[in-house]
Amino acid sequence: MFPRLVRRLGLMVFTVWGTLSLTFVILRLAPGNQATVQLGPEATAAEVDALREELGLNRPIFAQYLSYLREAVTGDFGESYRFHESAMTVILDRLPATILLTATATLLALVLGPLLGILAGRAPGRLADRAISAVTLVMQALPSFWSGIMLILLMALTLRLLPSAGSGDARHLVLPAITLAIPFTALVARITRSSLAEVTSEPYILTARSKGLSERTVLARHAVRNSVIPVVSIVALHIGTLMGGAVIVEQVFAWQGVGSLLVSAVGNRDYAIVQGATVLIAIVVVALNLLADVLNARLDPRIRAGVAS
């Protein structure tokens, strides 16, 4: 297990470095001038040149890159010109809101997804299976921005049950969390259904049934327990993806998290915020990938045996 863990840690470092480098290159190749954006269109050429010198944008690109990497290792992405404070401080102030949104959406998906998957997978090919499979397929295909707008029209504007936007109290959390959870719930349900349908055809399930055990006991003690391994892996991997999906959802609902901060920073060419937020999301994703590997190895002895061999 230890050699595999070391390899995964090495891959994490490489992935984060790749994210750092790609973000640096894309921002420098994007049209526009950061100094002009900060100073405004009425700034003189001398003022723009002075600010470019202050920001280090007149230095050779490779020198900028090395300086950028050196500072990023310490978590220093510079100062946000819009907020006039450390970019990482601004990002960390917004992070709890994104974590709350992501955690709530994950909880909804982990409650509803396995339930739908078990209902469908316990009787493959029957009416319940076909109906749930069709519904989850549609749920997974819905764009988050569209489903969010539809929920706003229904729940906020038509029924007036919930606020349409903002991040004031728990009521503001409901619609964005549901929107973010819709495709994740469908994914968990479909994975659970496929895994359970495969497990129920295994010989040991037939043996358990031949012993006279009730169908509920067979499902609870044998089938569901052994079908959860791929679900755990998918959930751990997809939580990181939820943070990426939260960028769109936060914009639709004006939720004050890292996602909405990132979008506004891109539009304002706030390099420090864009770089810091992108790297933070990358670290979360690769860390959850590592967690998925560890959980799978703990849950499935076959994986541990393969690693040991």
Account of the 3D structure:
The protein is an all-alpha fold. The chain is built from 13 helices and two strands; from the N terminus they run H-H-H-H-E-E-H-H-H-H-H-H-H-H-H. It has helices at 2-29, 34-39, 45-55, 61-73, 87-121, 127-141, 144-158, 170-199, 203-210, 215-253, 258-267, 271-299, 301-308; strands spanning 79-80, 85-86. It has a two-stranded antiparallel sheet. The model has no long low-confidence stretch (mean pLDDT 81).
Q: Count of DSSP helices?
A: 13
The CATH superfamily is identified as MetI-like
In the sheet with the most strands, the strands line up as 1-2
Gross morphology is: elongated
**Average pLDDT level:** 81
CATH topology: MetI-like fold
Helix/strand order, N-terminal first: HHHHEEHHHHHHHHH
The CATH class turns out to be: Mainly Alpha
Structural class: mainly alpha
CATH architecture: Orthogonal Bundle
Question: What's the N-to-C terminus distance?
Answer: 10 Å
Q: Specify Rg, calculated over alpha carbons.
A: 24 Å
Total tally of structural domains: 1
Outline the biggest β-sheet: 2 strands, antiparallel
Stretches with pLDDT under 50, minimum 5 residues: none
Q: How helix-rich are the residues, as a percent range?
A: over 70%
Strand content: under 5%
